[in-house]
Structure formats: structure tokens, C-alpha cells
UniProtKB/TrEMBL annotation:
Subcellular location: Cell inner membrane
GO cellular component assignments: plasma membrane
InterPro entries per UniProt: LipA_acyltrans
Descriptive protein name: Lipid A biosynthesis acyltransferase
One annotated GO molecular function: acyltransferase activity
CDD domains the UniProt entry points to: LPLAT_LABLAT-like
Transmembrane segments: none
GO biological process: glycolipid biosynthetic process
Keywords: Acyltransferase, Cell inner membrane, Cell membrane, Membrane, Transferase
């Protein structure tokens, strides 16, 4: 059964599934068909190196590599330009190109920052955040045991955002493991360092999320990924039709959870990150899935407009169209 079909079934009928065990092992002993042991060690070494380099230096390097992405023809640059042209039609061609180049630089910076999120002890990761706005409301809702749904779009550094926003809160995120077992072990260890519980992207995982909300815990969702056929509806996003997941909408209709949306904005001159959290658009609680999905996208769009150059525009968000036409 496909993931989205499982989700729809489970919203109506809970599965008696237990929570998956999290391991913090980072041993690269297992062979992988997609990434050699040597390749994994190189990647791990790179992450460890970038974890100790100053943010300002990483962003300087990211600016240079991002410039190369902008001038050398490649798929990421083409998708970025297409998305920006569609979502910001009021900008001139020069302004769209400037935003695209800034976005490509941000894309590289995000990759270079992952050492700070994945390798440093949790205290070091949390220390990357130097400014906070709006988080108190989320913390109060979590403390009251109301159940919280946190929308974390691919904006700024979503890894650092997740760790900071969920600090001290019982939290659960869906997790689809990579094919490489060594990288899977690394990422599980990364999540475990902050106490975040992982739920598989299947029927069992949805049951875990439902149970977490009923216990008044936090459930984290990445709201801007294109779902499978049964798991989404079309809704407006920056004036374009975007196939949007209904999982969040269905979760929001179970009990009385509070829904928030936020991100970690990259600050200039390597001064760290500013965590920004907003209460999501009230339309999310609408029982009509289309209206709820539109509210989710409005919540994401509100965040993106605060730092459009830091959004993941290289992702093919509009690859599914209502008339099956080719957007890209």
C-alpha cells in the first residue's frame, strides 16, 4: 500500500503500532550499494570540518560556489529561475535573476551549515541561534499539553530550526531513511541527540503521530513536499497551483492541536540564525481539505516572503499540474 493511502486509512482507524527504536550508532561498517564506505568517510570528514569552521567563512565559500551554480547551466539553477519567475511575476527580469542568484548561494550555504546541525553536540547546534521571535507561544502551547503541529518548510536552515524549536518539548517527526545504511545511522544519531523521536513514513508512522498528538506532544511536518496521488489536493501557493499534502490537515482535525509555522533565518556576516515562529493560518482547521491545504500554503508563503532568497526554489514544487501539463 502506498504511503498516502495508508495515511488516509489511519486517520479513520488507528493502528496499534509501537514507536520505532532510535539508534545513535554512526558506525560505517555496513556495505552500501549506493555509497562506498570510503565515500561515506569522506562525507563525514567534510561534515566534521565544516562543523568547526566559522559561519562567516562557510557563507563566504557558499557565495562563491553559489555564483558558479548561477553561471554554469544546471538543473538546480533552471528550476530556481522557473519557480521565481512564476512566483514573483511583478519583479523585473533583473530582479528575478538577482533573487535566483541569492537563492543558489543560499542553497550551497545550507549544505555547508549541516556540519553545525549534524556533528556538533546539541549545545553547539542550539548556540547557532542568536535571535528568536514568536517561539514563546509555541512553548506555552506545548507546556499546556494541547498538542502542537509544527510546519517547518525548506526555508533558511530547517535542521537547526527543528532542534531549537523542539528543545525541551516531546517531539515526533516522520523520517524516511536514506538507502545508505551508514548515512541512516548517522542521521538517526543526529535526531536522537536532541530527543526527537522518529516515525516511519508509513501506516505505523502515522499511528505514532496521532498518538503523540493525543498525548499533547509536538508533531513536526515538512509541508512543502509534493505528496503521492492519494495524499494531496491542489491549492494556491504564490499564485500557482501546488499539489499539497493533506496529512497536516487531517492531523489538525484530530482533537484540538495548535498549529505553528516557522524557520531559522540565516543572518548576515555569519551572525548566526534568527528563529521565527508564527501561529498558522486559522483556515488549517477547516474540514474542507482544499481550504485547509490553501491555509497551509498561506502559512508557508508568509514565512517565505520574510526571506525569499533563503527558500529552496531549486525543488520542483509545481511538477504536478491539474491538467498534467509540464511546468518545468
Amino acid at each position: 500500500m502506498r504511503q498516502s493511502a495508508c495515511i488516509n486509512t489511519l486517520i479513520r482507524r488507528r493502528d496499534n503500532a509501537s514507536e520505532p527504536k532510535i539508534t545513535d550508532s554512526i558506525s560505517p561498517k555496513e556495505a552500501s550499494p549506493t555509497l562506498s564506505r570510503l565515500g561515506f568517510l569522506v562525507a563525514l570528514g567534510f561534515l566534521r570540518l565544516t562543523s568547526v569552521l566559522p559561519l562567516r567563512l562557510l557563507h563566504w565559500i557558499g557565495g562563491g560556489l553559489g555564483w558558479l551554480f548561477a553561471v554554469i547551466p544546471n538543473r538546480s539553477a533552471a528550476t530556481t529561475r522557473r519557480n521565481i519567475a512564476a512566483c514573483f511575476p511583478a519583479l523585473s527580469s533583473a530582479e528575478q535573476e538577482s533573487l535566483a542568484r541569492q537563492s543558489l548561494k543560499g542553497m550551497v550555504c545550507t549544505g555547508l551549515e549541516m556540519g553545525k546541525a549534524w556533528i556538533l553536540p546539541i549545545e553547539g547546534t542550539l548556540a547557532q541561534v542568536t535571535e528568536v521571535e514568536g517561539l514563546a507561544a509555541l512553548q506555552a502551547a506545548a507546556k499546556a499539553g494541547e498538542g502542537v503541529i509544527l510546519l517547518a518548510p525548506h526555508l533558511g536552515n530547517w535542521e537547526i530550526f527543528g532542534y531549537f524549536a523542539c528543545e525541551g518539548i516531546a517531539s515526533n517527526f516522520m523520517y524516511q531513511p536514506p538507502k545508505n545504511p551508514q548515512m541512516d545511522a548517522l542521521l538517526r544519531g543526529v535526531r536522537a541527540k536532541s530527543g526527537i523521536q522518529l516515525a516511519p513514513t508509513n501506516r505505523k508512522g502515522v499511528a505514532i503521530l496521532l498518538g503523540a498528538l493525543q498525548k499533547g506532544e509536538l508533531v513536526g511536518v515538512l509541508p512543502d513536499q509534493v505528496p503521492t496521488d492519494e495524499g494531496g489536493v491542489y491549492a494556491d501557493f504564490f499564485g500557482e497551483s501546488a499539489f499539497t499534502m493533506t496529512l497536516t490537515s487531517r492531523l489538525a482535525q484530530r482533537g484540538t492541536p495548535r498549529v505553528f509555522c516557522g524557520f531559522a533565518q540565516r543572518l548576515p556576516k555569519g551572525k548566526g540564525f534568527k528563529v521565527i515562529v508564527h501561529e498558522a493560518d486559522a483556515g488549517i482547521y477547516d474540514k474542507d481539505l482544499g481550504a485547509s491545504a490553501a491555509a497551509i500554503n498561506r502559512s508557508v508563503e508568509r514565512c517565505v516572503r520574510l526571506a525569499p532568497e533563503q527558500y529552496q526554489w531549486e525543488y520542483k514544487r509545481f511538477r504536478r499540474q491539474p491538467d498534467d501539463s509540464a511546468f518545468y
